[in-house]
User: Which sequence fits this backbone?
């Protein structure tokens, strides 16, 4: 009986121990379950926080990596400086559905990516919005002052003013000379957008005007672009019919072939006397001697000679497409890379310094030809390109800057500046050609003339490899050394080796 009691007691103890053990297992499971739940909640919260943080970062910084070969979407330091200095709130309105740009071909897709980066770098100062003009016609009415507004246009706007950009303006293009077909060669979106930001945020907008009425050159859309980069609002003036407005600070006289009247010359004199600036280009001209205009030029210390510059060494394969010898000039060449970069002026006239300038003029040669150049008189026409005994020998002036100090009634002095060059310097084909430095040089010159310190020039993002510019003397070196010299040396060595082995 006693043994049975002991057995019952032992079984009871085991039951108690088993129950305690089961309770401990339950408690442990509950503990681990609670820990798992807590860790899961912590993980979920962490994911949410990280997502919020990454979203904040993408709104403030560009975290996407530009994997394109040409670095199409890489934003320059100049643009970053402009954006960081913005005090105004900027709205960029794209007149299209966002999907039209985002999911479109490269033409619009490249622009979409660039706009995204501007908005991100703006850190809340730049807002990009997409509005369908067909659904919201009132939006288009707001911008009627800009002229024709079309779908896909881009409006950059501040509280001061707005500026319209079309998608095609955000690309650089070339025209096939044989077929006349235009094709895109690079992305110019950053230059256009950054210039638009400067335009809509500037306190004042300078005004420039083309002088018309003397059969001037009209193919100057690339020069228009450079003037816009320097924040100029550009118009036309028929000088025989109207005065030069007081708010115009820059005149462009491009390749007139008919002389100015005495009244027109007086208007130009009055304009310069109040501190106005000008860019003047001339082209070979047989129809009119332009006597009055040339007398005005001599008051600024220069004379265009009716002689065209040729150079068989420093030129392209056409000897009158001459490369210039650029002189250092603080304010223009300071930020230009003159090493292995060339300014090319086709059909350049000789510019001679006369010493006849009036008043306090300072005349400086900015570009001249090399001493290998020669000039042919254009009066009777040019029959050939080869140098003859009658040809003048260089160097010759090709681009000249004349500066004059003028005072108003209160003896406040200001500077009047005139840049003299040939029409080839600013021709459409030359300014659009990335192999030449004409575009950068003219942009820097315009900024200097206008005393505009905020103007920036951003190189186009080219789709294809850049053209290697080789001058004629360099091509001859390549011909003699690489094409002829090295093969001849290899052939000679081969003959020597063959002869030695033959006699072994």
Assistant:
């Amino acid at each position: 009986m006693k043994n049975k009691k002991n057995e019952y007691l032992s079984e009871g103890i085991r039951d108690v121990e088993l129950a305690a053990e089961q309770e401990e297992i339950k408690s442990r499971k509950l503990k681990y379950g609670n820990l798992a739940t807590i860790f899961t909640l912590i993980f979920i919260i962490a994911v949410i926080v990280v997502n919020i943080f990454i979203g904040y970062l993408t709104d403030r910084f560009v975290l996407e990596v530009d994997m394109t070969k040409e670095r199409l979407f890489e934003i320059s330091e100049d643009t970053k400086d402009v954006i960081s200095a913005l005090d105004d709130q900027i709205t960029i309105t794209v007149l299209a559905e966002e999907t039209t740009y985002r999911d479109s071909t490269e033409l619009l897709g490249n622009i979409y990516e660039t706009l995204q980066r501007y908005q991100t770098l703006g850190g809340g100062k730049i807002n990009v919005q997409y509005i369908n003009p067909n659904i919201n016609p009132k939006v288009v009415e707001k911008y009627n002052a800009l002229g024709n507004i079309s779908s896909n246009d881009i409006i950059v706007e501040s509280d001061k003013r707005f500026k319209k950009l079309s998608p095609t303006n955000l690309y650089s293009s070339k025209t096939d000379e044989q077929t006349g077909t235009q094709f895109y060669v690079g992305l110019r979106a950053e230059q256009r957008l950054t210039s638009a930001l400067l335009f809509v945020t500037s306190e004042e907008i300078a005004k420039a005007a083309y002088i018309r009425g003397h059969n001037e050159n009209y193919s100057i859309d690339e020069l228009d672009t450079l003037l816009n980069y320097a924040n100029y609002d550009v118009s036309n003036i028929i000088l025989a019919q109207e005065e030069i407005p007081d708010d115009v600070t820059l005149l462009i006289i491009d390749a007139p072939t008919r002389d100015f009247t005495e009244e027109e010359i007086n208007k130009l004199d009055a304009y310069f006397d109040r501190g106005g600036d000008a860019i003047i280009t001339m082209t070979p001209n047989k129809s009119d001697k332009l006597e009055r205009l040339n007398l005005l030029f001599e008051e600024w210390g220069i004379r265009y000679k009716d002689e065209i510059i040729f150079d068989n060494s420093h030129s392209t394969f056409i000897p009158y497409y001459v490369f210039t010898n650029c002189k250092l000039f603080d304010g223009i060449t300071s930020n230009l890379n003159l090493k292995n970069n060339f300014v090319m002026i086709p059909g350049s006239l000789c510019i001679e310094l006369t010493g006849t300038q009036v008043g306090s003029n300072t005349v400086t040669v900015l570009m001249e030809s090399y001493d290998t150049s020669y000039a042919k008189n254009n009066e009777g026409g040019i029959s050939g390109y080869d140098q003859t005994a009658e040809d003048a020998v260089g160097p010759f002036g090709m681009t000249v800057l004349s500066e004059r100090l003028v005072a108003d009634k209160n003896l406040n002095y200001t500077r009047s500046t005139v840049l003299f060059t040939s029409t080839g310097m600013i021709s459409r084909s030359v300014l659009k050609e990335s192999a030449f430095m004409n575009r950068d040089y003219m942009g820097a010159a315009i900024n200097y003339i206008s005393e505009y310190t905020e103007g920036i020039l951003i190189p186009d993002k080219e789709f294809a490899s850049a053209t290697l510019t080789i001058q004629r003397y360099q091509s001859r070196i390549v011909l003699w050394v690489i094409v002829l010299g090295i093969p001849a040396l290899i052939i000679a060595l081969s003959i020597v080796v063959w002869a030695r082995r033959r006699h072994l």
